[in-house]
Specification:
By secondary structure, the protein is an alpha+beta fold. It has helices spanning 35-50, 61-73, 114-131, 178-182, 190-195, 197-206, 212-223, 267-283, 285-297, 302-317, 321-328, and strands at 4-8, 79-84, 92-98, 104-111, 143-149, 152-158, 165-166, 186-188, 230-235, 244-247, 250-253, 260-264. It folds into two domains: 4-161, Phosphorylase Kinase, domain 1 (2-Layer Sandwich); 183-328, no CATH class. It is 40% helix and 19% strand. It is globular and about 65 Å long.
Length: 331
């Protein structure tokens, strides 16, 4: 029998009624190099190595389907360390595939709704596209397979190399990433910009007045630049430090779900800033807006202002929640 071990995020505790169940929290909530993280990690590997019986589940049929599909995708002898993200109603599951020695060998994302399926397909396309390019200034995961079945999309990539360490968000944005961003830069008119899918998504949302103050501010700037040509380039789309690792002297970058070859050129600079200040923005969005303005918009250069505001537009259009908080609370 395939042994599947499920680790729940902090807000997922629907399995508490089970008499044998114990609650484990995803490793991501424990700081590196702490005793608590070591203990949770040790428990995880013990479950795999000793093949303890028991399936911890949260009582929802869709997770039973995932477990059944894992049996089809992987042969006997593999264990699974499954993380249900703690965000409420998030239709997403992460799976570490572990061999008989307890070593992580593959990483799998499972999408359970249309939004997540679209994001994961985009990540698959991005990884395959970038894998064909030469002289990238970073490493990235290799796609093993991408399969869809019964409304679930499985994207399986190689696990992160051993010895990987998180790139500290206290540092500056890695400068070696800049040549990648600007390699295929193009300049387009506003008419061409407005035809791009991400700008259409923003425009449709803005019509509902959800972004009223931000829309007015951006429109007033655009009217001052009637002949301006806007710089577009490759963007990771979620370029926060949690997606950047160091493998010896090389950068290893994950989570390419929001990649786009025609994003505003300031997108990843803004993404880095959002990742660095996400806790403040979630706690005090009004203060986050003020800090964004003082950081990026305190200049007389209208072209620069528009570039940073369009970066927010892009990140809102691809569902980056921290960016949405800023735009909704714009004053």
């Amino acid at each position: 029998m395939l042994k599947i071990f499920v680790v729940f995020g902090k807000q997922v505790a629907a399995f508490y009624k089970l008499s044998y169940a114990r609650k484990l929290t995803a490793l991501r909530y424990y700081r590196a190099n702490t005793v608590s993280r070591f203990i949770v990690k040790l428990v995880m590997y013990c479950l795999v190595i000793f093949r303890l019986d028991g399936l911890l589940f949260c009582g929802q049929a869709k997770y039973d389907k995932i477990c059944g599909k894992l049996n089809e995708l992987f042969p006997d002898g593999y264990g699974f360390f499954v993380i249900f993200p703690s965000e409420k109603d998030r239709a997403r599951v992460y799976i570490h595939v572990i061999d008989e020695c307890g070593k992580r060998i593959l990483f799998c994302k499972v999408a359970l709704d249309d939004l997540n399926r679209r994001l994961i397909r985009n990540e698959k396309d991005a990884l395959l596209l970038l894998a064909e390019r030469e002289s990238l200034p970073f490493l990235l995961p290799r796609v093993e397979f991408c399969k869809e079945s019964e409304g679930m999309l499985f994207l399986c990539t190689q696990s992160m190399p051993s010895g990987s360490r998180l790139y500290s968000q206290c540092r500056e944005m890695p400068v070696l990433f800049v040549p990648f961003i600007t390699r295929n830069m193009v300049n387009v008119s506003f008419a061409k910009l407005a035809e791009l899918e991400w700008y259409k998504v923003y425009s449709n949302t803005a019509k509902s007045n959800v972004y009223a103050s931000f829309r007015i501010a951006l429109q007033s700037l655009l009217e001052l630049l009637p002949e301006h040509r806007f710089s577009l380039a490759c963007a990771h789309g979620d370029f926060g430090s949690e997606n950047i690792f160091l493998v010896r002297d090389d950068f290893y970058i994950i989570d390419w779900e929001r990649f786009n070859e025609q994003a505003p050129i300031k997108t990843d600079e803004v993404g880095w800033w959002l990742g660095k200040h996400h806790q403040l923005i979630k706690r005090l969005p009004d203060q986050g807006v003020k800090l964004f303005k003082s950081t990026f918009l305190d200049t007389d250069d209208l072209t620069c202002k528009v570039g940073y505001m369009l970066a927010l537009v892009y990140m809102c259009s691809v569902g980056f929640n921290v960016a949405v908080l800023l735009v909704v609370n714009w004053e």
